[in-house]
């Protein structure tokens, strides 16, 4: 038998693979910073970044190129969020990999500096996640994958813009329709509240410390479970929460505790005791029930809450004896429910 040379088992590379790197920069509302002409092919918009200099690491290149594109000093690449292999992604049509790194949200002063000099920085704009497919159609999949990876503390592996092993957030495209907005004012329960409550919503905590989020693919919106007050509730906000959670997400809850008020909404933390089976049928609305960490709930609901309420929910969950869930992937609750959590 004739031995096969090892070199014959490895197909030759048609061309050297080019490497580019970019930063995921977002503002306080979760909008993504897009820069003109920073697409790997050089003819479209994408995340601020560019090709690597000789001997430069992807992380260093991402920070340097983003600083050059934005004019912001002191940018740095933190965790690697996504690596995308493009079969013909370079300007010369050769293979290219794009490394996307995280950066802490821009401060208010940094965000305002981006629009302070339109002549110098006219190629920059902030785009809501739900508008990426319209504004940067060729880049939207990669950017959304990076946003989902950021929420879950992982790195996403892509080929030509498609996630190779999609997670729950990728499968349901949770941020694809999100248009962040400014949260309504927060009033903690310890302070007087003289507004008129029209809704009750809650942080429903599962035994592992994660919260239940209700995602509506049609509206492209993730929310804390709950609903509107009805006359039969007789201004009993706990009753509103219990009834509306059972009706909208088939959730059985216990021990609701008032956290405060988000605008005209009463906000609670409660124990999630069980989930009923979701009804099925072509005319019924689609409901996706996701278990997420409290921090992920803040990121995914896009203006539904803020850091002050997040801290109040965390404290209340600890007081109820729930563990800190840490940073972990989101999971979907089974459609047939789980009556005893």
Largest sheet: 6 strands, mixed
Q: What are the low-pLDDT stretches, counting only 5+ consecutive residues below 50?
A: 4-16
Strand content: 25-35%
Shape: elongated
Question: Treating each run of at least 4 consecutive H or I residues as one helix, how many helices?
Answer: 9
N-to-C SSE series? Answer: EEEHEEHHEHHEEHEEEEEHEEEHHE
Q: Output the structural class.
A: alpha+beta
> What is the CA–CA distance across the termini?
62 Å
Rounded mean pLDDT score = 88
Give the strand line-up of the largest sheet. Answer: 3-1-5-4-7-8
Radius of gyration: 23 Å
Total number of beta strands: 17
Describe the structure.
The chain is of the alpha+beta class. Helices cover 23% and strands 26% of the residues. The protein has nine helices and 17 strands. The protein has helices at 58-70, 108-114, 118-121, 132-135, 140-152, 168-172, 237-248, 294-300, 307-319, and strands at 18-24, 32-35, 49-51, 80-86, 96-102, 124-127, 156-159, 162-163, 186-188, 199-205, 211-216, 221-223, 226-228, 251-262, 265-275, 288-292, 331-332. A six-stranded mixed beta sheet has the order 3-1-5-4-7-8, sandwiched between helices. Strand 11 (211-216) and strand 12 (221-223) form a beta hairpin. The chain is elongated. Residues 4-16 have low confidence and may be disordered.
């Amino acid at each position: 038998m004739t031995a096969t040379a090892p070199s014959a088992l490895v197909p030759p590379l048609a061309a050297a693979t080019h490497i580019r790197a970019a930063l995921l920069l977002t503002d306080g509302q979760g909008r993504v910073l897009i820069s003109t002409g920073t697409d790997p092919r050089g003819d479209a918009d994408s995340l601020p970044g560019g090709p690597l200099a000789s001997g430069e690491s992807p992380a260093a290149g991402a920070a340097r190129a983003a600083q050059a594109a934005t004019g912001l000093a002191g940018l740095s690449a933190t965790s690697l969020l996504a690596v995308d292999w493009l079969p013909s992604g370079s300007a010369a049509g050769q293979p290219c990999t794009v490394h996307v790194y995280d950066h802490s949200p821009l401060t208010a002063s940094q965000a305002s500096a981006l629009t302070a000099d339109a002549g110098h920085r006219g190629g920059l704009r902030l785009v809501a996640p739900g508008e990426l497919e319209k504004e940067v159609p060729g880049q939207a999949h990669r950017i959304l994958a990076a946003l989902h990876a950021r929420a879950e503390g992982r790195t996403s592996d892509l080929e030509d813009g498609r996630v190779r092993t999609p997670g729950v957030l990728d499968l349901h495209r949770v941020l694809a329709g999100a248009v962040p907005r400014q949260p309504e004012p927060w009033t903690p329960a310890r302070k007087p509240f003289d507004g008129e409550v029209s809704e009750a919503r809650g942080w429903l905590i599962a035994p592992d410390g994660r919260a239940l989020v209700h995602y509506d693919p049609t509206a492209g919106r993730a929310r804390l479970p709950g609903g509107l007050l009805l006359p039969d509730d007789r201004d009993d906000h706990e009753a509103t929460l219990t009834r509306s959670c059972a009706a909208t997400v088939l959730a059985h809850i216990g021990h609701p505790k008032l956290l405060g008020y988000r605008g005209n909404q009463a906000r609670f933390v409660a124990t999630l005791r069980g989930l009923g089976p979701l009804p099925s049928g072509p005319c019924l609305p689609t409901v996706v029930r996701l278990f997420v960490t409290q921090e992920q709930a803040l990121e995914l609901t896009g203006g539904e809450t803020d850091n002050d309420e997040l801290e109040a929910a965390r404290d209340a969950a600890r007081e109820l004896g729930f563990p800190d869930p840490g940073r972990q992937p989101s999971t979907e609750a089974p459609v047939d429910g789980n009556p005893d959590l």
